[in-house]
Amino acid sequence: MAYGYLAGLRPINGLYTSFFPPLVYFFFGTSRHISVGTFSVVALLSAAPVDRLAATFADVNITSNSTDNVVYDYRLKVAITVTLLSGLIQFLMGLLRLGFLMVYISSPLLGGFTCASALHVIASQLNALFGVKMKRTVGPGILPLDFYNFILVFKETNVATITISVICITVLAIFKFLINPKIEAKIHFPFPVEVVVLILATTISHFAQLNQRFGVRIVGPLPQGLPKPVLPDLNLVPSIAVDSIIVSFVALATTVSLAKLYASKAVYDVKYTLVASLISCAVLVLVLTVIGPSLESVPMCVLSSIILVSLTGILGQIMEVPKLLRSSVIDAVVWIVTFLATVFIDVPLGLITGLVFSLVTVLCRTQLSTSYELGHIKDTDLYESRTLYTAAERLPGIVILRFGGPLYYANSERFQNWVTETVGLDANKVYKELQSKTAVPTPSDRSQDKCSCSSKCCYRSQTLEVAVPEEEPPLRPQLANAINIRFIILDISSWTFIDVVGAHTLHDVSFDTVVLMKI
């Protein structure tokens, strides 16, 4: 019920959403732990197009004779169309085997996004928690605007509503953090305090007439039974396409990540179905057909309190940032950027910003790959970085280089400069130094040294005899250094791929070093 309200619809729609998905999942699902149905972040994402299009519809179509039912029916059409389109996108992803795309939504990205989304959820519940009528905003900057609008109407807070909210939040938090952990250790399932709070609050609200006497907002009439099926409005598809894609990706990413998490904890493959979903559906049928009218007096602030306490786990993810900083600064930055973008821009744009930034960090990691010279540690068979290990020494006449990443267009120049600096040879300077004295091939001659074999990256090396007059002064120190280097070994065990630019760079480097070592 609370999530139905969060999605911009009526609470009864939350019950419908909690009935049909688990029933389908009973036949096709594979996880013992996944709770299919309503979810705060997905409900919030679904509310974005609902609120946006409903506001436009109201401005254009509402007249003095119109009722709230007209806007509600339109909201319902938008929500149904978003749901259908999101499901079709996920179905299409399954047919095309596009599940691998989920790997691009990393844990830091998902953590920062869901944590910031929780703040949006809290902002959307301020009306019900404080009993005010705050105008809901849409578009970029929605969260700061929501809090600004809340400050403007804070003086209109309903005392009875905020009192109920504080009591409910306190009771729920005590059970969640203090009592339920002890109960779960003994009976392996938590005490359903939310149900108890809901029943008590509904009973008090009904007999004390909190709505009539103190202005406490309640759920209102709930229709019995299941509604008639309604076809979605396909004309809305162009307006909700982007929102539906985001909903489908976020729903899939969160569901799969949770399924894998619990499967790893319980040590089983995600392939078994339990009857828990069927039992929950049976309970909801009872609620929809019999108990529904008894829930008319449920205070909205109670539902919002349940949502608020349920979000504490998601908000607690912010405590993971210090751990990320210690383990990986880049992952921590991805978390922070996604969080800030989602908070200060919008939920959909925040996810897109975080995803783009995450992909940029992957590109930067490959471009700035770790590279170092390996040295031999005496009396062992180990070869370690000479920079990190002082005991690692260069073998006589041998240089071992390790470039820790793929060689492609973005880092090929860096690779070439690194080899030149490490070996101590600058081909261009040497060519200019000796060009007036010897017949040294210039860099432009490299392309003429290719063999005629079919291999794209196979080149033959020439033995060049260079006559240096005896009366000439000694060569520059870097050439003297080259005389002591007879072999250069390149460790490419960490190369995952190499493109055409990288192949040409590798050939140029090998050509230069071979020529200079022959001088």
TrEMBL record:
SUPFAM superfamilies (alphabetical): SpoIIaa-like
Source species, domain of life: Eukaryota
Organism: Opisthorchis viverrini (Southeast Asian liver fluke)
Keywords assigned by UniProt, alphabetized: Membrane, Transmembrane, Transmembrane helix
Protein name: STAS domain protein
TM region positions: 23-45, 78-103, 109-130, 160-179, 191-208, 236-258, 270-291, 297-316, 328-345
InterPro entries with a match to the protein in the record: SLC26A/SulP_dom, SLC26A/SulP_fam, STAS_dom, STAS_dom_sf
Gene Ontology cellular-component terms listed: membrane
Gene3D superfamilies xref list: STAS domain (3.30.750.24)
Keyword Protein transport: no
UniProt record, GO biological process: transmembrane transport
